[in-house]
Amino acid sequence: MSTELTAAAALALLGLLVGSFLNVVVHRVPAGQSVVRPGSSCPECGSPVRARDNIPVVSWLLLRGRCRDCAHPISARYPLVELGCAALFGALTLRFGLSPILPALLFLAAIGLALAMIDLDVSRLPFEISVPGLGVTAVLLALAGFADGWSPVAVALLSALAWFGLYWSLWFGTGGRGMGLGDVVLAPTLGLALGWLGWGPSLVGLLGGFAIGSVVGVTLMLVGRAGRRSQIPFGPSMLAGALLGAFAGSAIWGAYLGTIG
What InterPro entries does the record point to (predicted)? Predict the structure, then answer.
């Protein structure tokens, strides 16, 4: 097995563990609860989750998706979040290798997955995650700068400003009806990280989020799941656009410039 595949496999395993913790974050942060204490327990009978039942994915399969004590069903979303985080970690490692920017991208993938799940659940992006997320991302990018040079800094800062400016304008211009404040707070973090990768990833990520959101909205209306006045969480589309920008933004932007050049 090549070094790249070995690294991707190792970080995918790490993603499983991180995904297990993200399930706690998704459940507790919106409720204002600590993500550290108390330990995990069954929401139905209150029995503590045993250590052997905390193995990502495997424990859910062995328990057949039910609590060991009361047989209450355990949502399939738990192993899906774990697998999703593992897939993101592995894919990002294959795409960027063991580069200095990888830790920042892995961190954003983790909090982005948690924020998307929370937004789908309660229609908000908690500041408890997004505000410190900006600081952590900035620190991780600074470490990347020390290791690999500071040439991306100017574009990253301008990108963060552009993302924030657009989202703030939409929020302010609609009186908060067309854009949530949580989206505004998250925007500069995504802009900063994607801008570090270049203008192509930043712009594709920015515009891609709105394109994905439009497709989701129209699809939900066509199948009767939403109306013209329905409030549809935008965070997942925003984050999906950022993911598109990270993985394919340079190629897409280059192809676009080729068509107009």
Answer: Prepilin_IV_endopep_pep, Prepilin_pept_A24_N, Prepilin_peptidase/N-MTase
What lies within 8 Å, CB to CB, of 134 at 6+ separation is 185, 188, 189, 192
Burial 48-65 (b: 16+ CB within 10 A, else e): ebeeebeebbebbeeeee
- Count Cβ atoms below 10 Å from residue 86 Cβ, excluding itself: 22
Is residue 19 within 8 A of residue 56, CB to CB? The reply is yes
Matching residue, tokens 């991780």: 140
Provide the CA 211 distance to its chain's centre, in angstroms: 17
| Angle, helices 235-260/102-122, rounded to nearest 10 degrees | 130
Number of helices (H) and strands (E) in the chain: give both, helices first: 9, 0
- In which element (H, E) is residue 141 found? helix 127-148
Domain range list for the chain: 1-98, 99-261
The answer to whether 9 and 90 are in contact (CB under 8 A) is yes
Convert the pLDDT of each residue in 86-142 to its tens digit: 999 999 999 999 999 999 999 999 999 999 999 999 999 999 999 999 999 999 999
